[in-house]
Amino acid sequence: MRQPLRWPWLDFDVDKVDAPAIAVRVDVTETRAEVPDHWHRKGQLVFALGGGVTCRVPSGLWMVPPHCGVWIPSGMEHSNIATANARIFFVYIEPGAADLPERCCTLSISPLLRELIVELSDFGQGDARGELLTRVLLTELPRMPVQQLHLPISSEPRLRKIAEALAQDPADRSTLAEWANRVALSESSLARLVAKETGLSFGRWRQQLHLIVAIRELAAGASVQQVSGDLGYGSVTAFITMFKKALGKSPAKYLGSIAQNGGSEFVA
């Protein structure tokens, strides 16, 4: 069950705040929470200190594991879904205040930047010290490495239908032929459509979704056994093999390296 993710203050409009950057902390309860589709003039960095967040934009799904952030440019429609017990920070940045990408992307978050975000969210930007911290944040953020763990989603209605169905039930192991039948295409036509719209084969596209879900759930505290079952793998070994082949490390070592290195191990 999902509940609305509520702001720390009622009637809070980030676009009315006259500051180059502001940081807001949101602690999620035991239930998953969601911010529905919306947009704002300021760009937004979604950063998870604990748990995980999935951002949906028109072109794809973006995963926010601990110690990484997703940058959402100004004016881009998006929604955010947080795992239970997540500790989330939203950093809103005025257009032009920092040299940041014009596309949605995942950024590594260094320990220094992490502490700057936490400090600004706790104490605000209303004095000389806050202004100094903000300047350092806006200097450091563009230096963060861009990472690429996301699921491309096409606006093509048949692919969006498949993506939404798999997001709802990632354990669905229907074959390419079965999916083709559901969307009234031949198997070869669907294979070509997926490749054209996403740049991936159908199998690789579905695997990317599994990686997104797996990292999100593992970061939220789920066990490898639980995630393996939720994704429809016949055994824990099969799941670990897939994960290690895709990301080069077992789930435990991969998440450990993210926590230790501030996200620098995050790869496509």
UniProtKB/TrEMBL annotation:
The keyword Transcription regulation applies. This is Helix-turn-helix transcriptional regulator. Coiled coil: none annotated. Residues 160-257 form the HTH araC/xylS-type domain. It comes from the Bacteria. Pfam families: AraC_binding (PF02311), HTH_18 (PF12833). The keyword Transcription applies. Keywords: DNA-binding, Transcription, Transcription regulation. SMART domains: HTH_ARAC. It comes from Mesorhizobium album.
